[in-house]
Amino acid sequence: MQTSIVGLEISVSALADLIAEQESAVWSAFGGLERTVYDRPIDDKDARREQLEAEVSFRDRLIDYSYAIGVFADTLGLSWTCSELARLMRQIREAKLDELWDYLPEYDTAYSNPWHQLRSLYTDLARVSGVDAAGKKTAALVLLEQLLKGTAAMLHSRGVVPKKEKDVQNELDLVMTSVFADDYCTGFDIAGSPKKFRPDFGIKSLRTAVEVKFADSHRELKTALSGVFEDMKGYEGSADWRRFYSFVYMTAPYTVADTFNRQVMKKGVEWSSIVVTGTGHRTKRTKTPPKTVRRTRRKR
What we know:
This protein is of the alpha/beta class and 300 residues long. 52% of the residues lie in helices and 14% in strands.
């Protein structure tokens, strides 16, 4: 998964490294700010100037950090997160320098609410995107996401017009089996919940399970979202499967993918969604007309 910025191809892995560097720079600037508080004599003009310089440095590092997170979010296709980051960056730029942090005498420490918000947001993004502890996304996981996102184009090229969820699942079976071989599995239950939950397929080495949904109307999309929420409750606490995807195939643009993702993230940040739009329609059931019974006159 890559994005192009000023002609450079920046991968998720490279962005994770960049964010780690920016976070280290924020820590350093914040540490310098704390030292000016602890070491400053009362009414010392030079100390006040040093504090002002430290506050400017801290603000600038916060902006750099938030920009790096924004690029990361854009790479993942989460435009609404980019909007939230733009709002935070605007607040940071417009705030007075001493509003970006506060000294808590009861704990003898300094605290920054904007920085706390940025770090929490990035933590959620990292968990949603499937990056590992070092902030790196495995190549196999990126490949899985690319295959899911390309499902609509794949079905179109094969001349397949799905009429139900099973049609989409059958095509995914062919692709996933050829790509992941024995690592691809179906027909298993998620252990650890009182109710049996069976995802549509999984990739064992990635400890990743995928639910496939088919939506042919706004009502079906709403039902699919409700189903995702139910699945999320059932999959909690699984020791064998740690990452979950909801793959939604729509036959028309009933929603923006980002909107669906936002609804899912509100419920649980360890669950990701991929929404695509392609051709297809459900087979409409036709009512069979009632048989007419021909009455015959009884012979006398």
